[in-house]
Design a protein that fits this description.
The complex is a heterodimer of chains A (670) and B (292).
Chain A: E1 4-9, H1 21-28, E2 34-40, H2 46-59, E3 63-68, H3 71-84, E4 92-96, H4 98-102, H5 108-128, E5 135-138, E6 142-146, H6 150-161, E7 165-169, E8 184-185, E9 190-191, H7 192-205, E10 209-212, E11 215-223, E12 226-233, H8 248-252, E13 258-259, E14 268-269, E15 272-273, E16 285-286, H9 292-300, H10 312-316, E17 332-338, E18 340-343, E19 347-349, E20 366-368, H11 369-376, E21 397-404, H12 420-434, E22 439-444, H13 454-463, E23 468-471, E24 474-480, E25 483-490, E26 495-501, E27 503-508, E28 510-512, H14 516-523, E29 550-552, H15 562-580, E30 584-587, E31 592-594, H16 604-608, E32 614-620, E33 626-633, H17 643-647, E34 653-655, H18 660-668
Parallel strand pairs in A: 1-2, 1-3, 3-4, 6-7, 6-18, 7-10, 18-29, 20-27, 21-22, 21-27, 22-23
Antiparallel strand pairs in A: 5-30, 8-9, 11-12, 12-17, 13-14, 15-16, 19-28, 24-25, 25-26, 31-34, 32-33
Helix pairs in contact in A: 1-5, 2-3, 5-18, 6-7, 6-15, 11-12, 12-13
Chain B: E1 2-5, H1 16-29, E2 32-35, H2 47-50, H3 52-68, E3 73-75, H4 79-94, H5 96-106, E4 115-117, H6 119-126, H7 128-134, E5 143-146, H8 156-159, H9 169-176, E6 180-181, H10 200-216, E7 221-224, H11 227-235, H12 237-244, E8 252-254, H13 255-262, H14 280-285
Parallel strand pairs in B: 1-2, 1-3, 3-4, 5-6, 5-7, 7-8
The chains are: A alpha/beta (670), B alpha/beta (292).
Chain lengths: 670, 292
C-alpha cells in the first residue's frame, strides 16, 4: 500500500499569486493513498526540504510529489532530499504548477483547478514508479576544446594545467583568433599581442595539449564522459613534421594580391601563407582556391599531380632530401576520444552587404572595427599609422558610428553587441593619440560602459582626449569629392548633423561564427534565433549546456569582451575538471529496457536509434546453439529519448521512469 | 509575352508621357498589355491615411478584377500603384479576416495570388539580354543617374524588390540599351512627393540636392520609373532655379522612354515634347531623333 506525500510550493508569489496553494494541498489530501499534504512558501529552501525529509520519516512515505517549478529547475534538489530520508530518488516526482500553470494563466480558479489536476496526475504516476539506480560509466579523462581564440586558449591551458590531456581544434591555420588582430585593449591599453602571444606559445609547448589547426569537427558521437570526435584535418599541402617555418616559400609565391583575413582585407597575403608572423604553429598552408598550380589543375579538370604550373614554393623549400611542401596531401581524418567538450567558436562581424545606407563594402574609407584595429596595430598594413585605405592619407576627421546592426530590429538583430561602446571609445582615443590635431566624432544610442574601469575609460576619451560624442543615429553616408558626408541626427538638440569625414568606422554587430549552427547540431546543443549557443541556465549554469558534458566559453554564447571571455573559459575549464576528476560517472537510469520474452528481433529499434545504443544479443541454449537474436539497449549509450519505445511493433521496449503503465496511469487520472 | 496592365490615373493624366512610352516600348518589345477592364483608383496617397480597409479594398478590387479576367500577373508602371497593389496582396495573404472583409466589400473573390510587376520587374522578367537584342539605336555615350525614390524599394519587407539601399535593376536596364549608368549616391533619397502641393519649399530643397548629386557624379540626365519622381524632378526644376538662383537643366527621362527610343521610336511617340525641362536635344545629339 503506497503512502504518498504531496508538497505544494508557493515559489514566493510566482505560483501563489495565481494558484490557491492551500486549496491545492487540501484537495491533494483527498486523493487515494495520499497520507500527507502541505504547502509552503519556498519548498526548495532548507526548511522546505526539511519538511519533506521529516514527513518521510514520521509518516513512512513511499512516494513524494512536489508541486512546484519545472523539474529542469529543482528535480535534483527534491530527489536528493527524498534520498536523504531513505526514499529512492526516482520515487520523487514534480508536478510543474509554475511554468505549466501559474506563469501562463491569469484566472485564479481555473489555474487552481489545473494545478490540482497536475498534482493528481503525478500522484498516479508515482504509484507506478519503481526504484531506479544510477548507471555508472567510465570517464575518458581528456577534453576537447573547439576554437583557438582567447577563450579556447584559456580553457585549454586551464584544463591542461590541471593535469588532463586537451585536444584543441582550430579551423584557421593559426590559433589566436580575433584577439591577435587587435591593437590595444580597453580599459588599460595593454598591447593585445603582448598579452596573447605568450599564451599561444604556452599552448604549443604544453605537454598536455594536442593542437589541430586548419581542422574542423566532422562528427561527434557518444555522450558525457565518452565522446568520440572525428576531426577533419584540412589539406595544408605542407608536411608540418618537416617544415621549419623558414618562410622561403611565402617569399616566392606569385599569387600576392589575396586579401589577408588577418588584416581584415586591408593588406594582402600570398597563396602559400602564414596568417601573421607570430602565428602558432608558424607553419604555412596553401590556400588551394588561390594557388596557381591548384587553379590550373581545377581549370584542366585533372589531379594536381598532373600539372607542373608554377611550383616556385616547392623549389624554394630548402628542406632536403624530401621537401616539406607536398601538393598531394589530402584531407585527413583523426578520431579523438574525450570525456568533455568546450565550445569556444567565437564571433564574426555583421555582413557588409546588409548596410547599404552606409556604403559599407562600397566606399573604401567606410571600414569596420576590426579593420580599424589593423590600422592602429603596429603589426598592421600601415605599421600602426592611421591612414585611410583609399589613398593612404592621414584622416583629419574620423566619424565612429556605434550600434551598426545591433539593437536594430530592421536589421533583424535586437541585442546589444556589448563590446562596441568600449572599443569605439578606445578607437577614438587611439586615433587622437596618433593624430593630435584630428577630430573624432562618435554617434551613439547609449553608452554602456559597465565594467571595472570601463566608464572611467570612456570619460577619459571625452574629457582628456576631446572625443566628441553625439547622441543619435546616422542616416546615410555618401562620398563628395574626397570626403565622406555623414548625415545624422543629434537627438539631444533635435538638430540634423552633417559631418564631412575622411574616414568612417562602423561598430558593426557581433554575430556568432558562421557554421556554428551545424556544429551545435552535431553536439546536440541548442541555439537561439541568432545562432548564439544556449546555456543550461542563464544565471546558475552559465557555462553548461543542456547537452551533458558540453560546455561553452566566450562569444559563441553571447557577445563578450576579453575579460568576460577569459572568465567564462576558466569557468568552463573548472567544470570540465570536476567532470574529469572522477573515474566513473553516475548517469540517470532513464534508459530503454527490452523485454527479452517478447522481443522478436526485428531490429526496427536499431534502425531508429539516433545514438547507436541498440546492440544485438544472442540467446543460446545450454549446448551453445543459437536460439534467437534479440535487441539489447546499452544503458551507457542510451539517452532515454523513447524513439525505440514508440517504434517497437511487439511492444517489447519500455523506458525506465516513463513506462507505458506510468503514462497511462497519468492519463487516467485526468 | 502577355501581361495584365493596370495604368492607374497618372498614366492617363499628369504622366501621359509615361503612358505613351510604356505603350510604345511594350509594342516594340512585343509585349501584349491586357488592360484590366473597369479598373478603378488604387487608393494611393489618400486612402491609406484615411481608412485601412479602403486602402486595401481599392487595390483589392483591381486584383479581383484581374483574377476574374484570368490574368495571373499585372503590370503597374506607376510606382505608387504597384506599391499599393503589392501591399494589398501581402496584407490579404497574411490575414484571412481582412481577405473576407475585402471580399465582402468588393463582392468578388479576392485576387491576392495575382503577381504584381513594377516597370523594372517587367524588364527583368522580359530579360536584359533579350532587351539588348532588340535595340536598334543604342544610346551610346548617354550618362544617366538611375533614381528609384521611395515607393519602388520600400518598405523592403513588403515590396521585396532589389537592394533597398543600393538598387541596381534600373542600371542593368540602362546598360542593356547601350547607355552608361553613373555611380551616384542619392538614388533612394526622398523627392518630397507627398509635399509637392502643400510645402513646395521642402520639395525644391530635396530636389535640388538630388540634382546636384547627379550632376557632380557626371550624370547628364536622371532616369526614373515613377510618375511622382518625374513630376517633382522635372516640374520643380524651374522653381529650384529661381529659388536658389541656379541653372539646373537636367532632363528627366522615364526608363520606358529611353527603351522605346533605343528600339527605334521617335521622341514625339514617347512624349518627350511633354516634359518641362527640355529633353529632346540630348536624344537628338545621340542621333536617335526624327525617324519612325
Amino acid at each position: 500500500m503506497e503512502r504518498i506525500g504531496v508538497f505544494v510550493c508557493h515559489c514566493g508569489e510566482n505560483i501563489g499569486r495565481t494558484v490557491d496553494c492551500p486549496k491545492v494541498s487540501e484537495e491533494a489530501g483527498n486523493i487515494r493513498n495520499v497520507v500527507h499534504s502541505v504547502d509552503y512558501k519556498y519548498m526548495c529552501s532548507d526548511p522546505g526540504q526539511a519538511m519533506i525529509r521529516d514527513a518521510i520519516k514520521e509518516k513512512g512515505l513511499t512516494g513524494v510529489v512536489v508541486a512546484a517549478c519545472s523539474p529542469r529547475m529543482h528535480e535534483p534538489t527534491f530527489r536528493r532530499a527524498a534520498a536523504d530520508a531513505g526514499v529512492n530518488p526516482f520515487l520523487c516526482e514534480m508536478a510543474n504548477i509554475r511554468e505549466h500553470c501559474s506563469w501562463v494563466h491569469e484566472d485564479i480558479d481555473a489555474a487552481t483547478t489545473k494545478a490540482i489536476d497536475l498534482v493528481r496526475v503525478m500522484v498516479e504516476k508515482v504509484k507506478q514508479n519503481e526504484p531506479l539506480f544510477p548507471i555508472r560509466v567510465p570517464v575518458t579523462k581528456r577534453a576537447l576544446v573547439i576554437g583557438g581564440g582567447i577563450a579556447g586558449i584559456q580553457a585549454a591551458l586551464d584544463i591542461a594545467d590541471g593535469g588532463h590531456e586537451v585536444v584543441l581544434v582550430e579551423k584557421s591555420p593559426s590559433i589566436g583568433g580575433h584577439m591577435a588582430q587587435l591593437s590595444e585593449t580597453f580599459p588599460t591599453l595593454d598591447c593585445s599581442q603582448c598579452i596573447l602571444t605568450p599564451r599561444m606559445v604556452e599552448v604549443a609547448q604544453h605537454p598536455n595539449i594536442t593542437l589541430h589547426v586548419y581542422s574542423e569537427i566532422e562528427e561527434v558521437n557518444g555522450f558525457i564522459g565518452n565522446f568520440e570526435v572525428k576531426i577533419r584535418k584540412k589539406a595544408s599541402s605542407v608536411n608540418n613534421a618537416l617544415c621549419t617555418g623558414c618562410g622561403a616559400c611565402t617569399q616566392v609565391c606569385p599569387a600576392k594580391k589575396i586579401p589577408s583575413e588577418f588584416d581584415a582585407g586591408l593588406g594582402h597575403r600570398t597563396a602559400i601563407y602564414v596568417p601573421f608572423p607570430q602565428a602558432v604553429p608558424n607553419k604555412p598552408v596553401i590556400d588551394r582556391d588561390h594557388c596557381v598550380r591548384f587553379k590550373a589543375a581545377a581549370r584542366k579538370g585533372v589531379p594536381v599531380a598532373d600539372v607542373t604550373t608554377c611550383g616556385k614554393c616547392f623549389e624554394a623549400c630548402p628542406i632536403e632530401p624530401v621537401k616539406a611542401i607536398d601538393f598531394s596531401i589530402e584531407d585527413e581524418f583523426v578520431t579523438e576520444k574525450v570525456g568533455a567538450i568546450v565550445v569556444a567558436t567565437g564571433y564574426e562581424l555583421y555582413e557588409k552587404e546588409d548596410i547599404g545606407e552606409y556604403g559599407y563594402g562600397k566606399y573604401p574609407d567606410v571600414i569596420d572595427g576590426l579593420q580599424f584595429e589593423r590600422l592602429a596595430s603596429a603589426s598592421g598594413p600601415t605599421g600602426g599609422e592611421i591612414r585611410r585605405p583609399s589613398d593612404g592619407e592621414v584622416p583629419e576627421t574620423v566619424v565612429f558610428v556605434q550600434c551598426v546592426g545591433s539593437r536594430d530590429r530592421a536589421k533583424g538583430l535586437t541585442y546589444c553587441s556589448k563590446i562596441c561602446c568600449m572599443y569605439t571609445a578606445k578607437h577614438a582615443l587611439l586615433y587622437k593619440h596618433k593624430v593630435h590635431h584630428g577630430y573624432a566624432w562618435v554617434f551613439y544610442m547609449d553608452i554602456r560602459s559597465g565594467g571595472k574601469g570601463y566608464d572611467e575609460f570612456v570619460r577619459r576619451a571625452v574629457e582628456e582626449d576631446e572625443v566628441k560624442y553625439i547622441r543619435g543615429r546616422v542616416s546615410r553616408i555618401y562620398p563628395e569629392g574626397k570626403k565622406l558626408v555623414v548625415m545624422g541626427a543629434d537627438t539631444l538638440s533635435g538638430e540634423k548633423v552633417r559631418i564631412d569625414a575622411d574616414l568612417v568606422v562602423l561598430a558593426t554587430a557581433v554575430k556568432p561564427s558562421p557554421g556554428v549552427d551545424s556544429l551545435a547540431q552535431k553536439l546536440g546543443v541548442s541555439y537561439d534565433q541568432y545562432n548564439f549557443l544556449t546555456e543550461a541556465h542563464p544565471k546558475l549554469r552559465p557555462v553548461e549546456t543542456a547537452s551533458a558534458g558540453v560546455f561553452l566559453a566566450g562569444a559563441c554564447q553571447a557577445a563578450r569582451d576579453i575579460p568576460d571571455a577569459v572568465a567564462q573559459a576558466s569557468g568552463a575549464a573548472s567544470k570540465v575538471q570536476v567532470l574529469l576528476s572522477s573515474d566513473e560517472l553516475e548517469r540517470e537510469p532513464i534508459v530503454a529496457v527490452v523485454d527479452e520474452n517478447t522481443c522478436v528481433g526485428c531490429f526496427c529499434c536499431e534502425a531508429v536509434c539516433a545514438y547507436g545504443a541498440v546492440e544485438r544479443k544472442e540467446i543460446r541454449d545450454r549446448d551453445g546453439n543459437l536460439i534467437k537474436t534479440l535487441a539489447y539497449v546499452n544503458p551507457g549509450v542510451c539517452q532515454g529519448c523513447g524513439t525505440c519505445v514508440a517504434t517497437c511493433r511487439s511492444n517489447s521496449v519500455d523506458l525506465a521512469g516513463y513506462t507505458d503503465k506510468q503514462v497511462f496511469n497519468e492519463i487516467r487520472a485526468l | 509575352m502577355k501581361v495584365g496592365y493596370y495604368p492607374g490615373c497618372s498614366l492617363e493624366g499628369s504622366a501621359s508621357d509615361y503612358g505613351l512610352s510604356v505603350a510604345k516600348a511594350a509594342e516594340l518589345l512585343g509585349i501584349e498589355l491586357v488592360e484590366i477592364e473597369d479598373w478603378c483608383c488604387c487608393g494611393a496617397s489618400a486612402a491609406h491615411s484615411i481608412d485601412h480597409l479602403l486602402s486595401i479594398a481599392l487595390p483589392g478590387r483591381n486584383l479581383a478584377l484581374a483574377r476574374a479576367q484570368g490574368l495571373d500577373q499585372v503590370f503597374a508602371p506607376c510606382a505608387a500603384c504597384s506599391n499599393r497593389l503589392i501591399s494589398a496582396s501581402v496584407e490579404m495573404k497574411a490575414s484571412p479576416e481582412l481577405r473576407a472583409k475585402v471580399e465582402d466589400v468588393t463582392g468578388m473573390p479576392t485576387g491576392e495570388e495575382v503577381s504584381i510587376l513594377n516597370m523594372l520587374d517587367l524588364i527583368q522578367a522580359y530579360g536584359h539580354d533579350e532587351l539588348k537584342a532588340k535595340v536598334t539605336r543604342p544610346l551610346e555615350g548617354f550618362k544617366g543617374a538611375c533614381y528609384y525614390g521611395c515607393l519602388l524599394v520600400r518598405p523592403p519587407k513588403v515590396v521585396q524588390f532589389d537592394d533597398p539601399e543600393d538598387p541596381q535593376s534600373m542600371e542593368r536596364a540602362l546598360t542593356a540599351i547601350g547607355a552608361t549608368p553613373v555611380d551616384w549616391h542619392f538614388k533612394v533619397e526622398c523627392c518630397g512627393a507627398g509635399l509637392t502641393m502643400a510645402k513646395t519649399q521642402v520639395v525644391t530643397r530635396l530636389v535640388r540636392e538630388i540634382l546636384i548629386n547627379a550632376e557632380t557624379n557626371g550624370a547628364e540626365a536622371i532616369v526614373v520609373a515613377c510618375p511622382l519622381c518625374h513630376q517633382n524632378l522635372d516640374m520643380r526644376q524651374l522653381a529650384v532655379n529661381s529659388q536658389y538662383g541656379e541653372n539646373h537643366r537636367l532632363p528627366i527621362y522615364y526608363i520606358s522612354e529611353l527603351i522605346a527610343l533605343a528600339l527605334g521610336a521617335s521622341p514625339k511617340q514617347v512624349g518627350l515634347d511633354r516634359h518641362f525641362v527640355e529633353a529632346r536635344e540630348r536624344i537628338a545629339s545621340l542621333g536617335a531623333s526624327g525617324k519612325g
